[in-house]
Task: structure prediction
Amino acid sequence: MTTNVLENLQFRLAARPVGMVKDSDWQQVAEPVRELADGEILVKVLYLSMDPAMRGWMNDAKSYIRPVAIGEVMRAGGVGVVIASKSPRFAVGEHVFGTTGVQRYWIGPVAETGPSFLKVDPALAPLTTYLNTLGMPGMTAYFGLLESGQPKAGETVLVSGAAGAVGQTVGQVARQLGCRVVGIAGGKEKCDFVVKELGFDACIDYKGGSVRDGLKEHCPQGVDVYFDNVGGDILDTVLTRINLKARIVICGAISQYNNTTPVKGPANYLSLLVNRARMEGIVVFDYADRYHVGMAALGQWLKEGKIKSKEDIVQGLENFPQALNMLFEGKNFGKLLLQVAPA
Ligand SMILES: NC(=O)c1ccc[n+]([C@@H]2O[C@H](COP(=O)([O-])OP(=O)(O)OC[C@H]3O[C@@H](n4cnc5c(N)ncnc54)[C@H](OP(=O)(O)O)[C@@H]3O)[C@@H](O)[C@H]2O)c1
Result:
């Protein structure tokens, strides 16, 4: 196909943000798509995953992955369709998942080894599910909960960010394992969804009342596993309610990502000592060689209707800056996706 008739709109990092990301931190660039070289494919991006981690990738700081450079296309996971191919590995029309970046088209070589694209089958699950329950958030929830949280039937599992991407799957998996599951989320609507639609036993509205009171009411036997997505004051409060040998999974700390002052660490950490408890950080990429195991388990539960995959889809690549900020304003309901082109 002639590729240079296609215009590629890209969002590149223009400046390192201070606090919340501003429109001026982005540069929008539109350029024609170049011709393919041998071994390359052209992917039309359909959906982009909006992730809280993207905020961290914009900082010039040491982390589990290198920062996005100034002038570079913003990193993002996405699902797309191959529309041109000079690689024997991918055929036109195949759907793929990979790090597409925040742009309309991804073009490049697909090496035999190293980071590349995975084929996904829209006949097995909607494409959006591959960015949620069957994608990175689902793998984070599945392996983080099972391997670090190590929940046992009958135990109380508490998860913050309960109506979000990772949180929804953590709670639903814990229910499948026979645990008592309590969520923490912002607002009555989200809490109602978590209990009525996702089947959690209870949900604490941290915006509508005190987390401390909510924990006393809904976790009367204390907390055995806390899957923490938010950090800050909520983590500190939960530490006062943990049980002997409790496990705290540090998955994220979204309440701290836009701080212009130092990160607020838990003042109540000595509760770990008193309770011989454990607090452990997890990074989803560490489980990459076993994603197929997580996908099979979650896929089976989805197929049997035992768990749900809830997505919140914003339309239009041009709305990327506003969409990303929704995560930090609590405006997303389920896994936040940006639809770039009709699927
Ligand atoms: N370790 C890993 O490998 C890994 C992988 C994926 C994600 N994560 C982390 O997991 C967490 C959840 O990610 P996600 O993709 O599932 O996002 P998400 O929960 O779908 O969306 C973010 C949610 O965070 C909540 N939030 C925002 N600001 C908050 C604040 N100040 N205090 C409390 N809650 C706040 C909001 O929900 P409410 O309306 O309920 O406040 C918002 O909807 C993030 O911290 C992310 O960085 C880690």
Remarks:
- The first strand starts at residue 7 and ends at 13.
- The chain is about 25% helix and 25% strand.
